[in-house]
Design a protein that fits this description.
By secondary structure, this protein is mainly α. It is built from 16 helices and 3 strands.
């Protein structure tokens, strides 16, 4: 069982390395601008990261919405719909570099880790939908300058992935950028430090409360081709799955809950092997079980 858990970590590590493979960018303090940079990657990975080989879908969406020429991007929206329909929040669990960072941070020993829900947790989880609606969609379209161009407000004010992957490495190497540091970068560093500290206490606080990309993919969990389920003939309602879930998903009631990132912790915790996952067969409308081969 432990081997399967480690497999997810390896997938996350390899994916993060491959999508940030422009190593020379970290040395020179430059950003890769080659032809594949226009292609979006599924997870939250800052365009400004020196090693980034692709574009972040949230950053790309804001850029289009804030443009003076275009107000809708069929490519970016279609990209997120396609990955959401195929995988749901499996992207969050396996193919998000900043999700991987939070997973590693949560391994840091801390005397009082907050695994169970706390007062206000459910209300805070709704905040990521507000972030999506206001900072990602509304403000870039409505608050524009004289040229009719809006700012990427989420990237500008909140995104800790951009600060960690883009801002910090660039400023560390590029002396000219260090001379331009102002209150905005200080604010972004404060947000990043808060997320880093909270990640050691609460599992994936950014994913739970602030991530607009996770909010988008959550809409697809119940309808995506990749699904999770429970075999009622095997399940004894012991609750081990729910106790193991760091995302606090009510596994027994809803295996495809919007907050589920398909990490597989519930499957590994089930003493009866009652939880399964896989892809829905077209026509038959049944889940093709992948217990043996599934990475989770």
């Amino acid at each position: 069982m432990k081997k399967k858990g480690n497999m997810r970590t390896w997938v996350q590590a390899v994916y993060t390395a491959l999508t940030n493979a422009y190593a020379i960018g970290f040395v020179k303090g430059t950003v890769y601008k080659g032809p594949i940079k226009s292609i979006c990657v599924p997870g939250l990975n800052c365009y400004a990261c020196p090693g980034a080989m692709g574009a972040c879908p949230i950053g790309a969406l804001q850029a289009v919405l804030g443009s003076s020429k275009y107000y809708f991007s069929y490519y970016v929206v279609g990209f997120m719909i396609a990955f959401g329909a195929i995988c749901g929040r499996l992207i969050c669990g396996f193919l998000c570099p900043f999700g991987f960072v939070q997973d590693l941070l949560h391994k840091i020993p801390f005397p009082k880790k907050k695994i169970a829900t706390f007062k206000g947790d459910n209300q805070l989880r709704k905040l990521k939908y507000v972030v999506l609606a206001v900072l990602v969609v509304a403000l870039p379209m409505l608050l524009t300058n004289e040229a009719g161009v809006g700012s990427p407000w989420f990237c500008k004010l909140v995104c800790p992935s951009g600060t960690l992957g883009g801002g910090v490495p660039l400023i560390a190497v590029n002396e000219q950028l260090r001379g331009m540091i102002g209150w905005l970068f200080s604010w972004k560093m404060l947000v990043l430090v808060a997320i880093v500290v909270l990640s050691a206490i609460i599992y994936r606080p950014f994913c739970k409360y602030l991530c607009p990309l996770g909010a988008i993919y959550s809409f697809f969990n119940k309808v995506s081709f990749y699904r999770m389920g429970i075999d009622p003939e095997k399940c004894v309602n012991c609750g081990a799955c729910e106790r193991a879930c760091k995302m606090n998903v009510p596994v027994l009631k809803d295996q495809n809950h919007p907050e589920c990132i398909r990490c597989g912790d519930c499957k590994r915790a089930c003493p009866k092997g009652a939880i399964y996952s896989g892809y829905v067969r077209s026509g038959a409308h049944k889940i093709r079980r992948t217990d043996k081969a599934d990475l989770a």
